[in-house]
């Protein structure tokens, strides 16, 4: 079982794709209260989105979308439930996921 830290220390690419740039802006505008600026954590309300547990083989894109659309109940971790985000369009969700994946690639998360 992987321990989920409250703060991530990622490496950011020098330049993001347009889709990831949009996703970063959305994370900072709508997700930062719980997941931290740039999804790096620091809050007790939600895990850092850039944590390796969100790597694609453990948390594929379709799962990210389902959690964003439907939310997620409180589980066996120190964070509370994840509320659904119905205001996010499919393009918004794709941008958020693109940002996370591009940071993971630069950080070397496999």
If you had to describe this structure to a student in words, what would you say it looks like?
This protein is mainly alpha-helical and 110 residues long. The protein is 42% helix and 0% strand. The protein is built from 3 helices and no strands. It is globular, with a radius of gyration of 13 Å. The model has no long low-confidence stretch (mean pLDDT 89).
Q: Could you write a compact summary of the structure shown?
A:
The protein has 110 residues and is mostly helical. The protein is 42% helix and 0% strand.
Question: Any chance you could write out the topology, listing elements then pairs?
Answer:
Elements: H1 18-35, H2 61-70, H3 90-107
Helix pairs in contact: 1-3, 2-3
Helical content class: 40-55%
Principal-axis shape: globular
Q: Rounded to an integer, what's the Rg over CA atoms?
A: 13 Å
- What is the CA–CA distance across the termini? 17 Å
Number of helix segments?
Answer: 3
How are helices and strands ordered from N to C? HHH
Salient structural properties:
single chain, 110 residues, mainly alpha, 3 helices, 0% strand
